[in-house]
Amino acid sequence: MLAYPIFLEEDEGALTVTSPDFPELATFGVDREDATARAADALEEVIDARIDEYEDIPPPSMGSQTTALPPLLEAKVMVYREMRRQGMGKSEMARRLGLASPHAERALYVQTESRLDPIAALERIVGH
Question: Which distant-in-sequence residues (6+ apart) come within 8 Å of 16 by Cβ?
C-alpha cells in the first residue's frame, strides 16, 4: 500500500497540510478530519500533475500520519513508475498495451476511471 506522510500544522484556526514527499502539496482544513480529506484530494492532484509532466513520483517516506492512495490510483502509480524506470515514453507504453496513444495516456490519468486492468498493464509493460 502506498501511503504518503502528511504534516498537519495549526495556522490561525485552521490546519495547514503539507507533505515531505511532494513539496508542491499544500492545502488546509478546518479540523483534522477535513484536513485529512483535503490532503487525499491534493495528493491525487499532485500525482496527476506529475504524471502529466512525466515527472518522478517518489516512493513514500516514513511518517506518523499518512494518506493512502486508493487502490486504482496506486496501481496506476506502479505502472507509471515502472515506465519511468525503464525509460519508456507514453508512445512505447501504448504500443506494448496494444492501445492508441490517447487511450493509453488516459489510462494513467488520475481522474479517469480506466477500463484497463492496471495489473495486466504492468505485466505487459514489464514484459512478462
Answer: 8, 9, 10, 26, 27, 28, 35
